[in-house]
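User: Just a sanity check before I run the rest of the batch. Below are the structure tokens for the first item. I only need the designed sequence back.
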């Protein structure tokens, strides 16, 4: 199986869950040093290949490497994504293009590249990492990010119809506030304020997303396709701060 953006954060967590379940895992990313360290931590069944998902040719090469090393591709976790902040009054065309190219086009390119092998597997599984931001919530400075994540869901719904005759399912996981190394250095007070917006009063962990992705990859989930699963501790549920206070 392949996890794009698997060297850190949620992607690394997804890869760990699959590795622990016995899968042969191929992780990708743009930084070789981070990939090497992550693959070593995942164990003997894991390896890596440097890939920029904004480049369709590199995605094709990724699929070829996966087939060469593992004999095929059963699962693709299209997780690679970036989340730079840029408010509308200062957002440049390059800002917009980079986010859409990585988060949306990169998802499409990875899926296209893996389609032949996923079809050959006879029960291919695709899991896309979207977000609650865009499809369900908004955050100032992330309009381009939110748009890219909503675009992923539009892609998933129609792709599910096209892929069903090939016996491939495609679904999305939508994380809420997840504790990753990207939050390091923000301070405990800030982390506590993030957790306070969640009814469970805690941040999620990367394994929470990994287990959701693993479920979509199982035989038991074979009749589920074109769907999205929010994993956020109830973050999208309160209609106001008062609702949280009433808990």
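Assistant: Here's the designed sequence for the first item:
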């Amino acid at each position: 199986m392949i996890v794009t953006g698997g060297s850190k954060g949620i992607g690394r967590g997804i890869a760990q869950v699959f590795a622990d379940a016995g899968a042969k895992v191929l992780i990708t990313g743009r930084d070789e040093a981070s990939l090497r360290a992550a693959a070593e931590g995942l164990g003997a069944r894991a390896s890596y290949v440097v890939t920029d998902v904004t480049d369709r040719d590199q995605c094709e090469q990724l699929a070829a490497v996966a087939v060469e090393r593992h004999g095929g591709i059963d699962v693709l976790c299209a997780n690679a994504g970036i989340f730079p902040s840029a408010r509308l009054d200062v957002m440049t065309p390059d800002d917009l293009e980079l986010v859409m190219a990585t988060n949306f086009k990169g998802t499409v390119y990875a899926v296209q590249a893996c389609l032949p092998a996923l079809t050959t597997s006879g029960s291919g599984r695709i899991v896309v990492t979207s977000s609650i931001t865009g499809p369900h919530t908004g955050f100032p400075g992330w309009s381009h990010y939110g748009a890219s994540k909503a675009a992923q869901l539009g892609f998933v719904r129609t792709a599910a119809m096209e892929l069903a005759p090939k016996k491939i399912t495609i679904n999305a996981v939508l994380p809420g506030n997840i504790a990753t190394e990207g939050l390091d250095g923000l301070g405990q007070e800030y982390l506590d304020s993030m957790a306070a917006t969640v009814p469970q009063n805690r941040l999620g962990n990367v394994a929470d997303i990994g287990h959701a992705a693993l479920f979509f990859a199982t035989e038991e989930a074979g009749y589920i396709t074109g769907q999205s699963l929010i994993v956020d501790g109830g973050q999208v549920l309160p209609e106001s701060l008062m609702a949280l206070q009433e808990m």
